[in-house]
Design brief:
By secondary structure, the protein is an alpha/beta fold. It is built from five helices and five strands. It starts with 10 loop residues before the first helix and ends in an 11-residue tail after the last helix. Pfam families: STAS (PF01740).
């Protein structure tokens, strides 16, 4: 119930929609670095996969690093998208890894036992667990 004269709250205004954001690719001697922010979930996973696929097809580098330090949320769909993207990169002879995973995103990747593989095979230091 609303007070007299107040408009009822629209539930879609209260909850921001998930989005995935890509920073501009930066090329250096180590390959291509792309920052990823926002969320990778069932609503953004397809966009993430398509965008990354386009990068992998158009690039001529041997390595692509996704800086996911600004990623706020990832669900099982997002983890699957990361793993499938890594497989697709490998098929093209490109090494795809993640960097700067932190907070709940890193916890999920570690809980699912894919952090080490996605980060390039380097296990986290004991103090980072």
């Amino acid at each position: 119930m609303t007070a007299m004269g107040e408009q009822p709250m629209d539930p879609t205004d209260a909850v921001p929609l998930p989005e995935v954001r890509f920073g501009p690719p930066v090329r250096d001697a180590g390959g291509l670095h792309i920052s990823v922010g926002g969320d990778i979930d069932m609503t953004t996973g397809d966009l993430f996969t398509r965008t990354l696929h386009d990068v992998l097809v158009e690039t001529d580098v041997a390595a692509v690093t996704l800086d996911i330090g600004q990623l706020h949320f990832i669900d099982s769909n997002g983890v699957t998208a990361l793993i499938r993207s890594q497989w697709a990169a490998r098929e093209r002879g490109i090494r795809l890894t993640i960097s700067n995973a932190c907070g709940p995103v890193r916890e999920i990747l570690e809980m699912l036992d894919v952090y080490e593989t996605l980060s390039g095979g380097t296990p986290p230091a004991p103090h980072e667990r």
